[in-house]
Amino acid sequence: MIRLLFTMVVLVGLGVFAYRTGTMLAQRDATRLKGVVDRLTLEVTTLSDANADLQQQLAAARQAEAQWRERYETDVPTGKLRELQTLMEEQVKKGAKPARIAFLLQGAANERDCDDVPVSKRFYVHTPFYAGPVPATAFADNAVTVDVQGEAAVNAEGNAEGWFDPAKPVRAKFVELGGKAKEISGQLPLHYSLVRGKREYRFSVVSAERTGFVYITADSCAFP
Question: In CA terms, which of 4, 40, 103, 142 is 20 to 30 Å from 59?
Fold first, then answer.
């Protein structure tokens, strides 16, 4: 009986010890898991707050984008106005004075007082193979002379002809009385205008029906 009682006491003691040990381990695990849950909860809360801030920033960015797009569509010209703006920017880069451009634009709305009696002259276009004197023709009571040069035409054998090729770009040089000169180039027809005194002279260079020639036409209008 004593042995049996001793055995039962030992077993009961072991059971109590195991229970307490298990309880301690369970409490320790519960504490650790609670810490993990608290940390994850804090991270979720932080991420949620950060996401809310990002959503607000995204909404503000979209609103700013819409405002800038509306301002761009309102302020930036399109179509013909955009072409005119580009042309004005190019002229300013070339040295044209903004005041001069504004003056011309203001005068463009006025009804023009033109002669409507254009002077047209047929002119032989010289080429790099031309060995004679440089030809030129005069307009505006000899106040403006015009010289046109082109590239030589080539025959089927690849040899240069004695006349210019109207399909290739030409160069037209306009020289005013006093030495001021301006050269333009491009494919025909070419157009150019200049202001001299109170008159604006408008020139057109077009192909003529006769090989090697062009027609140079000049008209004048009151300026502005």
Answer: 40
User: 3-state SS string over 145-209?
Assistant: EEEEECCEEECCCCCEEEEECCCCCEEEEEEECCCCEEEEEECCCEEEEEEECCEEEEEEEEECC
3-state secondary structure of 213: strand
pLDDT tens digits for range 138-183: 998 889 999 999 999 988 888 888 889 999 999 999 999 888 899 9
The radius of gyration of the chain's CA atoms, rounded to the nearest angstrom, is 46
Write the DSSP symbol of residue 114.
B
Strands 152-154 and 137-139 turn out to be unpaired
The model's pTM is 0.50
* Domain-wise residue ranges, the chain: 1-76, 83-109, 113-222
CB 101 within 8 A of CB 86: no
Whether 124 contacts 213, CB under 8 Å: yes
